[in-house]
Amino acid sequence: MQLSDFNAASEADAIAALKPCLDIERWCAELAAARPFNSMDDLVAAANRAANPLTPAEVDQALSHHPRIGERAEGEHKEATLSRAEQSGLGDLSGDTAEKLAKGNAAYEEKFDQVFLIRAAGRSKEEVLSELERRMNNTAEEESAECADQLRQIAVVRLEGLFS
């Protein structure tokens, strides 16, 4: 999609285009209402502003769509396709790595009662595992803030991909 097409789209079509980036109704509506954008930089800046802050309810809503790191997103909808592409950059996640991720995911979910979320795009599997271990030391409040920031980062990566 071109930025000019997004700017010219109906509000409903603009929101539908944004949902796979970050499925938070308020965020999508704010970006759709802020059109037209003169450049990708303007769109990304608006996306960052709209995602700062995300409420705990919005984070919970968005997390309900994300698979565990190391697990393949199911389905053929746009969000699942994007998730698979983002995690594919981690390389082979079998054997020892898969076991460490599974144990780390389980411990994280036990502690924080949500899936571990991280922007996988541009990261190695070693970096993801290191971040998982580091974030296990967070308080619930610290982790909530990190999760919201990771959602924002994922949204920006997906936005940039949508308009490339």
From TrEMBL:
Residues 7-160 form the Oxo-4-hydroxy-4-carboxy-5-ureidoimidazoline decarboxylase domain. It is an enzyme of class 4 (lyase). Keywords: Decarboxylase, Hydrolase, Lyase, Purine metabolism. SUPFAM superfamilies: UraD-Like. It comes from the Bacteria. Residues 60-97 are annotated as: Disordered. The keyword Repeat does not apply. This is 2-oxo-4-hydroxy-4-carboxy-5-ureidoimidazoline decarboxylase. It comes from Micrococcoides hystricis. The lineage of its organism: Bacteria, Bacillati, Actinomycetota, Actinomycetes, Micrococcales. The gene is uraD.
